[in-house]
Amino acid sequence: MSRYEEAAARYGALGVDVEKALAALKQVPIAVHCWQGDDVIGFDSREALSGGIQTTGNYPGRARTPDELMADYDKAFSLMPGKKKLNLHASYAIFEDGETAGRDKLEPRHYRKWVEFANERGLGIDFNPTFFSHPMVKDNLTLSSPDEEVRAYWVAHGQACLKISEYFAEATGVPCVMNIWIPDGYKDVPADRIGPRERFAKSLDEILAVPYDKSKVFVTLESKVFGIGLESYTVGSAEFCLEYVQSRGITPLMDNGHYHPTEVVSDKISSVLLFNDRLALHLTRPVRWDSDHVVLFDDETREIAKEVVRCGLDRVFLATDYFDASVNRIAAWVTGVRNVQKALLYALLQPTEALKTLQDENRLTELLVRQEQLKTAPFGDVWEEYLRRENVPVDFFPEIEEYEQKVLVNRK
Ligand code: RNT
Ligand code: ZN
Question: 23 to each of 55, 99, 140, how far by Cα in Å?
Fold first, then answer.
């Protein structure tokens, strides 16, 4: 018996069908964020990153052009098992023939090359309007600005992005998740808290008034607790966003870096899915703040994955969202995405029904004992079998080193 067969037999004894878990995992798309490759800089304005988010580190080899970012994306994808999707920001528009366009005037053709790239690889595309790193962000405000010119500019950006999202869905044949996140807020105690929120709601209503096919585009809204330099007040708070999506029938998005460090997203998923058809997640790792460290195979990532599996894998849109420039960016990409997949497999290998029965029958001692025993079940053997079946290396570090020496070090 191989190690995998032995592992499968041991899980089988717990009532877990390993083959079924591997087949399910293979079908789960992870939207891999493009912005790990270039430190969230993008191609349209090339302004310094703003909006209260920050990339730290200066590891050599940042992708500086669309071609470099695509090559790095490809390298990273070749080392990740399973199904992927591109996750692009509007700021990654690729202008051709010397053309440029403001964010309010972006059009599907500015993303033609991304569609080509996706179609050649059989991938869908998710999309994000970019409400930061741009001169039209005035006083840290966009859709909630009291300056009508600023507000209208960003509404036009949101509307343009909705059209582009529809184009992605049509051109790839895969539905597009379009996520709205705005950085708007104040560093110090504001005098008017409701005004900016009223304007944000009005702006969102104006964006959503553009007709779009709701079976092809899922609009999501991402909340946040605070940004750097915007510590006292965030317009798009958790409560604002949940109430807004509920009342307008769009989809909530939870980024697990956007809560107080003692709050956990894993415990929020079941509440949100009781009242929403779907939920979108940004998987990240907050260290003391919304630091966007690489996702690890840690307790909270596993707990989130368990909730996703228990509440319905098909109801949750999964995307990664972190940016680390202190280590090799491709290794960062692959490590984080693999850890999301690892956590999902770990969750799929739980004897969920049996554990639930223990809870419902109040056999809590046995539940404690069984859950702890599962932590040292031969999970690694099943994971490595999955990697082999997906034809990606179990140890991918040699490939990272080789790519660094051959490609990245030449980017001076
Ligand atoms: C910022 C949000 C947002 C961004 C990306 C770049 O706090 O997490 O999702 O990370 O849009
Ligand atoms: Zn996010």
Answer: 36, 45, 46
Active centre residues (catalytic): 181, 222, 224, 255, 258, 282, 290, 292, 321
Contacts for 263 with CB less than 8 Å, ≥ 6 apart:
none
User: Strand 124-128 vs strand 84-89: parallel, antiparallel, or unpaired?
Assistant: parallel
pLDDT of residue 380: 98
Reduced to 3 states, what is the DSSP secondary structure of residue 242? helix
Determine which residue's CA is closest to atom 10 belonging to ligand 1.
321
Q: Atom 7 in ligand 1: which residue has the minimum CA distance?
A: 53
Provide the residue type at 379 as one letter. Answer: F
User: pLDDT tens-digit profile of 358-380?
Assistant: 999 999 999 999 999 999 999 99
What pLDDT shows up at residue 46?
84
**379: Cβ contacts below 8 Å, ≥ 6 apart:** 7, 345, 346, 349
Residue 80's identity, in one-letter code, is: M
Buried residues in 154-187 as b, exposed as e (16+ CB within 10 A): bbbbbbbbbbbbbbbbebbebbbbbbbbbbbbbe
First to last CA, the chain: 51
pLDDT recorded at residue 359: 97
Is the C-beta atom of 128 inside 6 A of ligand 1? yes
Q: What are the tens digits of pLDDT across the range 239-276?
A: 999 999 999 999 999 999 999 988 999 999 999 999 99
* Domain chopping of the chain, boundaries: 23-348
**Whether the CB of 259 sits within 6 Å of ligand 1:** no
Nearest CA to ligand 1 atom 3: 181
Q: Which residues contact 49 (CB under 8 A, 6 or more apart)?
A: 39, 40, 41, 55, 132, 133
Q: What CATH number should be reported for the domain whose range is 23-348?
A: 3.20.20.150
pLDDT, tens only, 115-141: 999 999 999 999 999 999 999 999 999
> Ligand 1: distance of its center to the CA of 132 in Å?
10
Whose CA is closest to 83, among 128, 134, 28? 28
Ligand 2 centroid from CA 236, angstroms: 13
Give tens-digit pLDDT for 289-309.
999 999 999 999 999 999 999
Q: Which residues of the chain have pLDDT under 50?
A: none
Find the 321 Cα to ligand 1 centroid distance in Å.
Answer: 7
Across the chain, what does the average pLDDT equal? 97
